[in-house]
Amino acid sequence: MHSVLTRGNAILAYTLSVLAALTFFCFISTVFIDYRTEATMNTVKVVVKNVPDYGVAREKNDLGFLTFDLQTDILFSVLILPGLHLTHLFNWNVKQLFLYLTAEYSTPTNKLNQVVLWDKIILRGENAVLDFKNMNTKYYFWDDGKGLKGNPNVTLTLSWNIIPNAGLLPNIFALGQHAFHFPPEYTTSRV
């Protein structure tokens, strides 16, 4: 005969094994889904100033100001069976999305510069259709020198991290990007 402690240990071990198997099934059932979707972005106003950055030193660095438009439908619905719809990004293994808009450019001192300009967290059940017009950036667009003035190739991309119930934290890039350039002269007007 087994004691109560031995039986309790067997039940707990069996329960944990079943839960681990179910968690792995949850992960493996959604790992091969393509989470990319179309995104359209555009810059409305782009200016650059040369101002002192008091956070690092008192020398002047370039500070870019831009307003942008952003349109994407993250809550894209897919018909699986008659009467059963699966949203494109929100499935049973997705708790929330962390969206962020980045600007990528190169300068003579740095081959790759990436700056996060805007971000948003979308929880399950929230409105996931983004249609922003003439939005200001959420974060400052600082360069660590004078690499923004006249920069001919700055690219905006929308990306997101999927926060799952179980499994990996994938970094997904939207289909579509927008390239723009900064003006060749500094602005003196107030932005």
TrEMBL record:
InterPro entries: SPC3. The chain crosses the membrane at residues 12-33. GO terms for cellular component: signal peptidase complex. GO terms for biological process: protein targeting to ER; signal peptide processing. Pfam families: SPC22. Its main location: endoplasmic reticulum. It is found in: Endoplasmic reticulum membrane. It is a single-pass type II membrane protein. Keywords: Endoplasmic reticulum, Membrane, Signal-anchor, Transmembrane, Transmembrane helix. Belongs to the SPCS3 family. Essential component of the signal peptidase complex (SPC) which catalyzes the cleavage of N-terminal signal sequences from nascent proteins as they are translocated into the lumen of the endoplasmic reticulum. Essential for the SPC catalytic activity, possibly by stabilizing and positioning the active center of the complex close to the lumenal surface. This is Signal peptidase complex subunit 3. The gene is Spase22-23.
